[in-house]
Amino acid sequence: MFGIRGLREPVGNGKVEGSSHNRFVKSARTRNFLTFLMVFGPGLIVMEADNDAGAVSTYTQAGAQYGTHLLWVLLLLLPICYFVQEMVARLGIATGQGHAAMIYKRFGKWWGTFSLVDLLVVNFLTLVTEFAAISLALSKMGVAPTIAVPSAAVGLVLLVTTGSYLRWERIVVFLCLLDIVWIAIAVICGPNWGAVAHDSIIPTMAREGINRDLVFLTIAIVGTTIAPWQLFFQQSCVADKRLRFSDLKWARLDTLIGAVFTIIVAACMMLAGEVAYRKGVSFTDPAQMAGAIAPFVGPFVKDAILLMMVNAAVLGTTAISLSSSWAYGEVKGWPHSLHTPIRKAPGFYSLYALFVLLAAAVVLIPRAPLQLIIVGVQVLAGIMLPSAIIFLQLLLNDRELLGEEFANKRWNNWINWTIIGLLFALSLVLAAQVLAPNFIGAS
Q: How far apart are alpha carbons 245 and 42 in whole angstroms?
């Protein structure tokens, strides 16, 4: 059977590029800071990339329909996001392999194929929605879809084909940090900060009361904040970065920072939508909302929201496409590292480019069923998420694989099984509501 050492095979020389681990630094504080900077990245990226185009739509709609009344849901999701992704980081460091490879090796070909096919299908459909958002946002800024979508697709392919993991990571971390603009947007929108503080901590009832739309939107927020591809992405990212046992505490800090930043940004998206709630403005998508609230908040907010929509879609696209390419490459045994140049990993890079370019092409098809694709993403993601997390939980309890140090403790299991049960119930309700709109009752 596999063990930690048997699985922990470095891709190259086993060293992190430019790592401070191999430098002599006298100050412990400086050494720790440099080490954290080298480990920092996967946790922030996996969290913030999930604030993608779908998240912008969901959070702004929540603010527009219910003001600040659903902010408490985000705070509730903060520990859930952290605990789920902490397991992923721990498993990636302990094994040095991606999530798809581990499912194949520990649960067999059938379950491995089931997980991989589900991931690839959901990811591709999600990519289509990301490019739809790019088309929508840039159209509002006067850029034709026939220019915006292909340009974005080519840029996304070039982003990962540099043969340097660190170069890709630095660019993507910069794009993640650009989401600070959402904080500026929220401040300019001028919400009632007392209500924001109150509703973030204490669950409150909107004036509409409990209805189907409220339940559906609450569950959608949960589904938007935690996605199946995140499990595959972060574990593969940690393995590709070649993090080691001593890096675990810094990987946990990276994940915590990413979770906190993501929830703050999500709240700011909700506050942008809250302007429409206060002013009685209606809209069908975030791009239309940006124009509708411009008379109340100014042209800067309008342009900033549109650009942040594009940024969100770019982040989501590169992370989701890589999670697919990493997973498929792991299972097929292909070279699948961003450290590797194209000539040495043609299958890995070609698959990434294929996903990106095909998704972009679908958006450009006249009268493409984009709404059907969006609904399909919700249902399939709802079905896949609980099973994906169950695999993760079982792997983290495999003491033969991980040993006592890295395996889940009793308190981990209590928390994680509670999270799994909650997500499973919510995912079933979401899937039922999408397939049968009258499942919950009247609006």
A: 16
